[in-house]
Specification:
Length: 222
Amino acid sequence: MSDQRIASNDLTVWTYDWVPEGPRGHVRDIRLRWALEEAGLDYAVRTVPFDDRGPEHLARQPFGQVPFLEDGDIILFESGACLLHLGRKSETLMPRDPRGEAEVTQWLVSALNSVEMVTVPWWFVKVSGASENPLHDWMMQRFDKLERVLEGREWLATSGFTIADILMADVLRIPNDLGELEKYPALRGYLRRALARPAFSKAHAGQLEHFEAADATRSEDR
């Protein structure tokens, strides 16, 4: 990605003002930061309180989550919707031909509906300390199928790296960290390629710095 920034009117990524150490680096505003860094689009980061998710937050994100994206007078919640919006702003993130856009869209939705909808509840069961995880085999079935896809390609869409890869790679990060991709060489290679991109490194570092700076503010307030 070029270091040259592209001016864009009032693009703002909203995230929490602070989170505990555990989720840092994984809060989903990283998906938007990553896309914006890939595209070289200027953006600001603003915050809503983690501890008190009041009416102003709920008016923009009815589930009290983050991220949400502000683009002028447009406000979007849900990371997938935000990525599609950013994809339409930059050909770096999504091709302009109808077939290419459709291909990216299907893989982005599959990351949410076919993979993340299994990995997130699997993770919740795992961290609960359950002796057996009833979702494990289901998750492995998803990885089996995705492994076969990625054995023959570098990125999900034929056009190259896109917002679909940003979302899929982020979905795979926690299972990989917990050793669940050990028998999937194509998935591990795909994830390594994605996370080696300078835009991810910058987005990841930016999120960590954001929450680390908030630690000092919280300490002063207490």
